[in-house]
Amino acid sequence: MSETTVQAPAALSQGEASVARRRAPRVNRSAIVMGLYLLFLMLPIYWLLNMSLKTNTEIVSSFSLWPQNLTFQNYVKIFTDESWYIGYINSLIYVVMNTAISLAVALPAAYAFSRYSFMGDKHLFFWLLTNRMAPPAVFALPFFQLYSSVGLFDTHIAVALAHCLFNVPLAVWILEGFMRGVPKEIDETAYLDGYSFGKFFVKIFMPLISSGIGVAAFFCFMFSWVELLLSRTLTTVDAKPIAAIMTRTQGAAGIDWGVLAAAGVLTIVPGALVIYFVRNYIAKGFALGRV
Amino acid sequence: MNKTVNQKAWFLVLPVLVLVAFSAVIPLMTVVNYSVQDTFGGQFFPLDDKLLWFREMLQDDRMWGALWRQLTFSGIILAIEIPLGIYIALNMPKSGFWASFCLVVMSLPLLIPWNVVGTIWQIFGRVDIGLLGYTLNKLGIDYNYTQDVFAAWVTVIVMDVWHWTSLVALLAYAGLQSIPNAYYQAAKIDQASRWAVFRYIELPKMAGVLMIAILLRFMDSFMIYTEPFVVTGGGPGSATTFLSIDLVKMALGQFDLGPAAAFSIMYFLVILLISWVFYTVMTNLDKRDGV
């Protein structure tokens, strides 16, 4: 509404102007609502950041809204101790692997679902989605045994494959939504022009749905990055994710709050970076291409 | 879009099938296998009464208790997050710098690993070092989530609202963005009230994405494990022991594989049933939109 008034200020009739004036307080109310909501979102994160910049003695002995003796010691500890920072590397390795695998298998499948009807397609699609609904708790133990028996236990690829359980169905679902938006005439024209399926798919089709691919990659990254139950069950030493290493801070001498908080803050950073890069696609992306 | 009948499309779906079969069907069959056997010292014995574990679990108060807590939890968080998410979406800036800013900040909680979400709230709610617990106690409100059942529930619910309302808001926002300006102009000419605009323009346009939101939130809240486990450990007592927490305790803690497997299968079936209802409604909505 405010947009229309901006676009056509000359045509602003008296009625419209009064509506605009009446609406003016509403804009402020929106700002207040959003302000409160964002504050609610940021407060716990701020508190974590606050704690990560304090020494343990300060955390336990006094209560302050900001660090009195600013220290970066907690971060230094994480960046210098290999058993700490290796966790971030492990997590990133399996997350990237998972994203690559999920997209590679989901792309052709999503194309098939969006373009062709074939025997059992609807049942197959729902069956795929049911895997997104499967509670990881149900699969934790069988996964452990399956990957142990094929010799993949405690490797990055094991976690990457396990996360495909929920990421592949999601990727198919998202990509199918985006592909439906591409007119079929494009495919037909390309085939008439003598493109082979593979060449058409890579050269013409994939650029057309690049935002969809980005969104699907974002979601795969997100769900693989935040998951803990499966990644913890499938690893012990070599591929242990940062989230599992964090539980180490509960030692005999109590909890090392400062380092725990610093590790927590650092797990937020990759997510924040990814969000920053895809910020213009987020809104459409969250609707899985269905708007 | 009219789809061509083409059975060769199966080849495009094949990679997904193989991968998901490996990471879903094999583990699921293992679970089914356990559910009809008895374990003793790592050896498996077929049960004479194949359905013994199922009957036992159905008569187990512990499972019913966890199921009711789970349904209550999912019900409460859906009842809070869906309306709140819509409300937030309606108040978000439509474009410009502040829109991007809101999108980025709101997405932040979604990309924090789940156990870090738990850690954040565990710290935030502590009465000695947490902002929330400390403030509430200073205000004279008796709040201690490790001892008081009510406080534990409130903490877990507020945490989930903090964590996931943004997802609903972003989906609703994407739905709102797709409404052409002409609709609002028509409503203005008709002098429609704010409520009428919401009820007859915005809500129907958001229906599709809201179904996705409800489906995702239902599935994920029904499988919730890490966050409440980190914060309350299922306690005090078993007040916040949801289905997944109970299941992991049974399968990996006590190694009662048979009953745990029977539990898993029934758990999965409940999710499947409810999700199928959602999915059917959703595809019908899709079809209606397509016409």
Automatic annotation (TrEMBL), chain A:
Membrane-related topology note: Multi-pass membrane protein
Subcellular location: Cell membrane
InterPro entries per the UniProt record, alphabetical: BP-dep_ABC_trans_perm, MetI-like, MetI-like_sf
Gene3D superfamilies (UniProt xref): MetI-like
Domain ABC transmembrane type-1: 88-278
Stretches that traverse the bilayer: 31-49, 92-113, 125-144, 156-179, 200-226, 257-278
Pfam family, one: BPD_transp_1
GO-annotated cellular components: plasma membrane
This protein's record includes keyword NAD: no
Listed GO biological process terms: transmembrane transport
Family that this chain belongs to: Belongs to the binding-protein-dependent transport system permease family.
Protein name: Sugar ABC transporter permease
Organism annotation: Roseobacter cerasinus
Source organism phylogeny: Bacteria, Pseudomonadati, Pseudomonadota, Alphaproteobacteria, Rhodobacterales
TrEMBL record, chain B:
SUPFAM superfamilies attached to this UniProt entry: MetI-like
One record GO biological process: transmembrane transport
Chain ranges passing through the membrane: 12-36, 67-90, 97-124, 150-176, 197-219, 260-279
ABC transmembrane type-1 domain residues: 67-278
PANTHER family: GLUCOSE IMPORT SYSTEM PERMEASE PROTEIN GLCT (PTHR43759:SF1), TREHALOSE TRANSPORT SYSTEM PERMEASE PROTEIN SUGA (PTHR43759)
Membrane topology recorded in Swiss-Prot or TrEMBL: Multi-pass membrane protein
Predominant location: membrane
Keyword field: Membrane, Transmembrane, Transmembrane helix, Transport
PROSITE patterns hit by this protein: ABC_TM1
Keyword Isomerase on entry: no
Gene Ontology annotations for the cellular component aspect, listed alphabetically: plasma membrane
Organism: Roseobacter cerasinus
Family as reported in the entry's similarity comment: Belongs to the binding-protein-dependent transport system permease family.
Protein name: ABC transporter permease
Localization per Swiss-Prot or TrEMBL: Cell membrane
